[in-house]
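About this split. The held-out portion is used to measure sequence recovery: a designer receives only the structure tokens and must propose an amino acid at every position. Recovery is the fraction of positions where the proposal matches the reference. Here is one held-out target exactly as it appears in the evaluation file.
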């Protein structure tokens, strides 16, 4: 494929996913240019150029945003703002105390029957509310030797029946690396029934779902589940729907998780539209997460009683199978905790 440079919102679809991945937008000026922002709106944005966890977004995701709209729900998820610098009580760097569930390099074993492997720290998009934005990935990227140790660990824990690949984004690595890891997990873990990938790439860079990865997935003997991460119906455009359909044809069970975010999806209309758009793409809503209290994300927080009320209203508007579970990740709990009326009235 010939090199296309620079990428724009009208030519990126002709570039390979690998090129799209190396030409990510990391400059706010470029982003505002692509979105045709007028001077007044640009000036109203209160600049913040974080040194760590910089702006990072693929053209394919920006293409789904409205032009010249600083309140676009997709833009809000990725645009750094001055609010990130505010120190807010209760918002921590490791809100889930994950460090205490890190038995060996690259492994989080918090829930009994399932382990999570952090395949890579890299991700094509930097979501401003990311709960692992302060995570020490350098200490947690498994090498080939580490993968052997992980295999031994899983086989020594007979209660483990599912392996999750997360990160970062496990689809951020090359097909060669990912498929060789999947093959090892598929062939050498007799007690494991399911391999699950947690990824945002079908949404932010749908071209990532290429023929090679689909062919590799079809060769697996174990069941594969993919949990995509969509927060708003506008994220599910034709390209993402096509990627989802291709994954389903390869035998993948598709689920979605959403984070409830102030200014992005904190209305019953937005949540209802999301459930319907997901179903149109063949994806079932799985979790609606209450925001993890990570430092720098306080401005996205939806108060718990509001979250419960929204979920209750959603229950009235969608079929049972289109209602995600409203959950909260609490440190040291053996499962994701359902959030319900009792919790808010008694705690
Ligand atoms: C969320 C999570 C899982 C998966 O939990 P499910 O409820 O099965 O989706 C596994 N391990 C860790 C560390 C997690 O945070």
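Reference sequence for scoring:
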């Amino acid at each position: 494929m010939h090199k296309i440079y620079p990428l724009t919102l009208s030519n990126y679809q002709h570039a390979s996913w690998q090129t799209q991945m190396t030409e990510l937008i990391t400059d706010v000026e470029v982003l505002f240019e692509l979105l045709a922002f007028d001077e007044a709106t640009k000036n109203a944005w209160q600049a913040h150029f974080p040194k760590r966890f910089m702006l990072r977004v693929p053209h394919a995701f920006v293409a789904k945003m409205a032009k010249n709209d600083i309140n676009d729900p997709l833009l809000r998820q990725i645009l750094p703002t001055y609010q990130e610098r505010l120190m807010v009580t209760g918002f921590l760097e490791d809100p889930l105390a994950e460090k205490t569930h890190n038995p060996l390099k690259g492994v989080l074993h918090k829930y009994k029957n399932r382990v999570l492997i952090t395949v890579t720290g890299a991700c094509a998009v930097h979501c401003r509310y990311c709960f692992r934005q302060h995570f020490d990935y350098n200490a947690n990227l498994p090498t080939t030797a580490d993968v052997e140790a992980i295999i031994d660990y899983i086989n020594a824990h007979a209660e483990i029946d599912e392996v999750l690949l997360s990160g970062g984004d496990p689809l951020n690595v090359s097909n060669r690396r990912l498929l060789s890891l999947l093959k090892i997990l598929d062939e050498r873990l007799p007690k494991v029934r399911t391999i699950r990938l947690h990824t945002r790439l079908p949404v932010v860079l749908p071209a990532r779902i290429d023929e090679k990865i689909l062919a590799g997935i079809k060769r697996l003997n174990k069941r594969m589940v993919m949990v995509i991460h969509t927060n708003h119906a506008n994220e599910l455009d034709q390209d993402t729907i096509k990627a989802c359909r291709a994954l389903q044809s390869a035998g993948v069970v598709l689920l979605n998780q959403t984070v409830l975010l102030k200014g992005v999806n904190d209305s019953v209309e937005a949540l209802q539209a999301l459930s319907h758009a997901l179903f149109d793409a063949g994806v079932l809503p799985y979790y609606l997460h209450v925001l993890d209290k990570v430092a720098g994300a306080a401005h996205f927080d939806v108060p718990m009683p509001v979250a419960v009320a929204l979920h209750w209203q959603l229950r009235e508007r969608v079929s049972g199978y289109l209602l995600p579970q409203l959950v909260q990740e609490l440190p040291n709990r053996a499962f994701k905790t359902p959030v319900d009326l009792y919790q808010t009235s008694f705690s």
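Annotator remark: Residues 113 and 122 are 26 Å apart (CA to CA).
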